[in-house]
Amino acid sequence: MVCAIALLAAACGSSKSDSSSGTTPATGASSNITIAPSGDPTPGGKLVFGLEAESDGFNPTVNRWAISGTEVGLAVFDPLVAFDANGQWSPYLAESLTPNADYTVWTITVRPNIKFQDGTPLTGAAIETMFNAHLASALTKPALGPVTSAKATGQLTCDITMKTPWVTFPTSLTSQIGMVPAPSMFDAAGKGTDAGQRAPVGTGPFVFKSWEPDKSFTATKNPDYWRKDAQGNALPYLDEIDFRPIPDGDTRTQALLSGDINELHSSDFTQIVKYRQQAKDGKLQLVEDQGESEEDMLIINTSDPAVSDVRVRKAMALATDVETFNKTINAGIGEIANGVFKPNSKWYAPNDYPAFDPVAAQKLVAEYTAATGSPPTFTLGTTPSPINTLAVQSLQSMYQAAGMNVTVKTTEQSQFIADAVTGKYQVNLWRQFGALDPDTDALWWYGANATGGLTLNIARNQDPAIDAGLDKGRQSTDLETRKAGYAAVQQGFARDIPYVWLDHALWVVVAANNVRGITNGPLPDGQPSLPVGGGGDFGGVVRFTQTWLQK
Question: What's the pTM value of the predicted model, to 2 decimals?
Answer without folding.
Answer: 0.85
